[in-house]
Specification:
65% helix; 110 residues; elongated; single chain; alpha+beta
Length: 110
């Protein structure tokens, strides 16, 4: 994943209300009103956050009568998970190299 894409995803989840929405949707689908009832922000504010989450592929929606029901999308979270796993693997490789180079009996002098 490109760093620019990862930055956008992390910024999207960096807002505490958007993160809370993602957490609520991880448990079950919700309507805008159900989410607004759980958060200390207005229904229009919840809708704005959902639009951003939808643009970043974290959520999807479907019409059910007069309501829109929002669901968590796996692909948005999977993309972020893959990025974080890559960071972790890179850090782990560097740690192993550093540990091997500082092992007892390893002389750094030529």
């Amino acid at each position: 994943m490109k760093r620019k894409t990862a930055t956008k995803l992390l910024q999207t989840l960096g807002d505490p209300y958007r993160l809370a929405i993602v957490e609520y949707l991880s448990a079950a689908p919700h309507s805008v009103q159900q989410l607004a009832n759980k958060l200390p922000i207005s229904r229009p504010a919840v809708s704005r956050h959902l639009r951003l989450l939808k643009a970043s592929k974290f959520v999807s929606d479907e019409a059910r009568g007069a309501q829109r029901i929002y669901n968590l999308r796996a692909d948005g979270l999977d993309a972020l998970r893959r990025y974080l796993e890559q960071l972790w693997e890179d850090a782990e490789r560097r740690f192993v190299i550093a540990a091997q180079n500082t092992a007892p009996g390893h002389d750094k002098r030529p």
